[in-house]
């Protein structure tokens, strides 16, 4: 399973994750730019499949700024935000508890671009039918309300251009979630990622900060209803398969496909579930440039001077109950 050379040669279609695969906290991961170019040149269809609340167009623009270009390094981008946007625009958001919701409110960074072309209306919490989980970041005002001695534990010190802070835990969001639950509001989540590695400008180090998936998980644990769009949920894979057939003439029943991702619970589980549900062949390939490498780093921090990567990974697979088909060290080494 581990570190096979030229692992990607045998595939027709590659579904590539972004954070932890193409991009790390400090930009494009070494070697990835040339690997992607080589894959496109050798005739493979490369689809970037990312859990992010950005729409595909905005994601493409952000990759181009990093030197990763459409038709040179990839053919298509599908973001969970794009799939959510299309459902929202079509008025196709349905919850078990609210089959025909009309009014929404936003939790986290107040970005509403997924709703601008829809008939859903933003409203105060007391009138809302559901809430949309935006990027879980805090404003300076919200940070100011947290006692000084708790701030370091709770927050990354990255200050965004929009003056918003990432959070290391869900703690600052729990009071709001409790209020939502009291009002029986279901949640819409367009980024099932639990955490993402972000660079911290003040300490010049990288830290794991929470994303929508962590908020969704906490809300479900309270008993709240969540509609999640993005990996590992299969709706985004259905969207990709339709795109491959309609725009690239791919026979999805016979195509040899693979997902390359760094996260068991999203990329790997998603590929395994989609293969089964749609009766297609999507191998699940784990790369060690992102979050799954952390288990080995942690083993070293916990006192080991070295880490047996294979042993640590097997332990991780058992703990999560998810095992990839293959493991590669880095997309940049392919
Ligand atoms: Mg990732």
Plain-language structure description:
The strands form five sheets. This protein has a six-stranded parallel beta sheet, sandwiched between helices. It has a five-stranded parallel beta sheet with strand order 7-6-8-12-15, covered by helices on one side. The relative contact order is 0.16. The mean pLDDT is about 90. The longest helix is centred in the last third of the chain and has 15 residues, at about 265-280. It has two domains: about 5-85 and about 230-334, 3-Layer(aba) Sandwich (Rossmann fold), CATH 3.40.50.1000; about 95-230, 3-Layer(aba) Sandwich (Rossmann fold), CATH 3.40.50. β2 (about 25) and β3 (about 25-30) form a beta hairpin. About 35% of the residues lie in helices and about 20% in strands. It has helices at about 30-40, 55-65, 80-90, 140-145, 150-155, 175-180, 210-220, 235-250, 265-280, 295-300, 310-320; strands spanning about 15, 25, 25-30, 45-50, 75-80, 105, 120, 130-135, 135-140, 155-160, 165, 185-190, 195-200, 205-210, 225-230, 255-260, 280-285, 325-330. It is of the alpha/beta class. Magnesium ion binds near residues 261 and 290. Magnesium ion binds near residues 20, 21, 262, 263 and 290.
């Amino acid at each position: 399973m581990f570190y096979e050379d030229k692992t990607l040669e045998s595939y027709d279609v590659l579904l590539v994750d972004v954070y932890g695969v193409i991009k790390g906290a400090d930009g494009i991961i070494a070697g990835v730019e040339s690997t992607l170019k080589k894959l496109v040149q050798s005739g493979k269809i490369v689809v970037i499949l990312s859990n992010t609340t950005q729409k595909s167009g905005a994601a493409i623009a952000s990759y181009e700024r990093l030197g990763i270009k459409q038709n040179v390094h990839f053919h298509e981008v599908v973001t969970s935000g794009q799939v959510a946007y299309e459902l929202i625009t079509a008025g196709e958001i349905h919850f078990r508890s609210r089959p025909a919701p009309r009014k929404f409110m936003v939790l986290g960074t107040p970005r509403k671009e997924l709703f601008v072309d829809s008939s859903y209306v933003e409203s105060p919490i007391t009138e809302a039918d559901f809430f949309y989980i935006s990027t879980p970041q805090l404003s300076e005002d919200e940070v100011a309300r947290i006692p000084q001695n708790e701030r370091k534990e709770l927050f990354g010190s990255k200050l965004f251009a929009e003056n918003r802070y990432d959070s290391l835990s869900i703690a600052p969001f729990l009071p709001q979630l409790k209020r939502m639950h009291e009002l029986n509001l279901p949640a819409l989540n367009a980024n099932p990622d639990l955490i993402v590695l972000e660079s911290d400008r003040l300490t010049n180090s990288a830290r794991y900060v929470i994303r929508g998936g962590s908020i969704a998980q906490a809300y479900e644990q309270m008993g709240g209803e969540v509609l999640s769009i993005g990996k590992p949920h299969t709706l985004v894979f259905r969207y990709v398969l339709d795109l491959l057939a309609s725009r690239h003439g791919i026979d999805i029943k016979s195509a040899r496909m693979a997902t390359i991702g760094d996260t068991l619970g999203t990329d790997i589980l998603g590929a395994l579930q989609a293969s089964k549900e749609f009766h297609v062949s999507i191998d699940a390939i784990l790369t060690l440039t992102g979050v799954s490498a952390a288990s080995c780093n942690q083993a070293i921090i916990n006192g080991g001077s070295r880490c047996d990567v294979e042993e640590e990974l097997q332990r991780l697979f058992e703990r999560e109950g998810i095992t990839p088909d293959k493991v590669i060290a880095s997309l940049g080494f392919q």
